[in-house]
């Protein structure tokens, strides 16, 4: 008779077998956004979606978008340390209410 396995181990195996690991890490970046960037930044931003490893963040002003774009590499590094290596490839800052994909002008300057 097999011994019972911890539910966490069973779920981890199912997630691995279904190939959902990266998607779950991407979604954790959205859920944990406020904890990653802190209350002050979270008061002016909202993580809205991940598309192909690109995290889209709504920002309430162009000033915040510019400031955060200067911190993009650090933010990306902190996200990936928290949710899993290489879950997020790029962070886009989108001005709330804008139809643009990237309120900051760094779209073409992808970082390592």
What does the secondary structure layout of this molecule look like, with pairings?
Layout: H1 7-18, H2 21-31, H3 33-37, H4 39-42, E1 45-51, E2 54-59, H5 62-70, H6 72-83, E3 90-95
Parallel strand pairs: 2-3
Antiparallel strand pairs: 1-2
Helix pairs in contact: 2-6
Largest sheet features:
3 strands, mixed
**CATH class division:** Alpha Beta
Mean pLDDT across residues: 84
| Strand elements, count | 3
Shape: elongated
State the separation between the terminal residues, measured CA to CA.
50 Å
CATH superfamily name?
DnaA, N-terminal domain
Query: What fold name stands as the CATH topology?
Result: GMP Synthetase, Chain A, domain 3
Secondary-structure element string: HHHHEEHHE
Strand residue content: 15-25%
Number of helices: 6
Secondary-structure content class? alpha+beta
Oligomer: single chain
Helix content bin:
40-55%
Give the uncertain stretches in residue-range form: 101-112
Q: Determine Rg (CA atoms, Å).
A: 16 Å
**Strands side by side in the biggest sheet:** 1-2-3
Total count of domains: 1
Gross CATH architecture: 2-Layer Sandwich
Outline the structure in words.
The protein is of the alpha+beta class and 112 residues long. The chain has one domain (7-95): GMP Synthetase, Chain A, domain 3, CATH 3.30.300.180. Helices cover 47% and strands 17% of the residues. It is built from six helices and three strands. Strands 1-2-3 form a three-stranded mixed sheet. It is elongated. Mean pLDDT is 84; it is low at 101-112.
């Amino acid at each position: 008779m097999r011994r019972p396995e911890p539910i966490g181990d069973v779920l981890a195996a199912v997630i691995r077998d279904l190939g959902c690991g990266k998607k779950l890490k991407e979604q954790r970046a959205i859920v944990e956004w406020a904890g990653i960037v802190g209350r002050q930044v979270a008061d002016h931003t909202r993580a809205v979606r991940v598309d192909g490893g690109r995290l889209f963040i709504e920002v309430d002003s162009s000033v915040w978008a510019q400031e955060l774009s200067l911190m993009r590499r650090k933010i990306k590094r902190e996200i990936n340390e928290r949710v899993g290596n290489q879950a997020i490839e790029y962070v886009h800052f989108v001005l709330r209410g804008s139809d643009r994909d990237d309120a900051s002008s760094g779209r073409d300057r992808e970082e390592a």
